[in-house]
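Obj: model holo form, ligand = IPE.
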Amino acid sequence: MQSSIKHVAIIMDGNGRWATQRRRPRLWGHVRGASIVSDIVEASDNLGVKALTLYAFSTENWSRPLDEVTGLVKILNKFLIKERQRLIKNKVAFKVIGDTSHLNSEIKKLIQDLEHETKNFEGLKLSFAFSYGARKEIVDSINSWIVKHPNQLMTEQDFANGLYRPETGEVDLLIRTGGDFRISNFLLWQIAYAELFFTQTKWPEFSVAEYTKIINSVANRERRFGAIHSMPSLDESQQLAKQHINQI
Ligand code: IPE
Ligand code: IPE
Ligand code: MG
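Output (holo structure tokens):
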């Protein structure tokens, strides 16, 4: 199936409240939440999605109680071990985006190995945003530019090239589960023209059926990128804008 939705980003929110409503510890919600990730990854491929960026842990989430933080790191560790074969089999190109410097050496190695092993795969580009903050990503891009090009101004393209995974490009659709209507420091640059979809469903109850429904409903929205009729992409809208500027 061909869809205009190529890059999907998901804020996987609501695990804690889902567990609390069931009188279970918050961590149980995270475990259940992690267990549905692979279904959504596999469904993405079938829905024609080329890149999927999942928000698993923000730079701000480090401020949570220590047992929750430790538990979340352990869940990532387990996920990397458990899902490795399946990701490789499905030719998923896996990458963690974020500041992983605080993680222990075992998990760093698991991440590095999986990234290395899958980096040339041509299937879904799966990014796990872990210890991720968009403001940090922005500042990191600017700083790496300044170091390499002192006294030279950067273009939008230079800036985008310095992001953590530039090849995934613009986000077409951002989904947030859990019922809140906010971005919480996720992909601030990449969502400039994304379609936004907020669902009340808490992440552990999110399903392939709901995901498919969202993608189909959004694929029918008219994306104008500033023009007055449907435009195929932001890129084409910007090129047309340039031509017009040169003609007036
Ligand atoms: C999202 O679920 C997962 C992380 C932020 C790690 P939450 O843990 O934020 O769940 P709620 O929002 O408290 O329900
Ligand atoms: C955003 O959820 C981060 C992740 C889902 C990983 P939060 O639960 O941390 O966001 P806030 O605190 O509601 O803004
Ligand atoms: Mg939350």
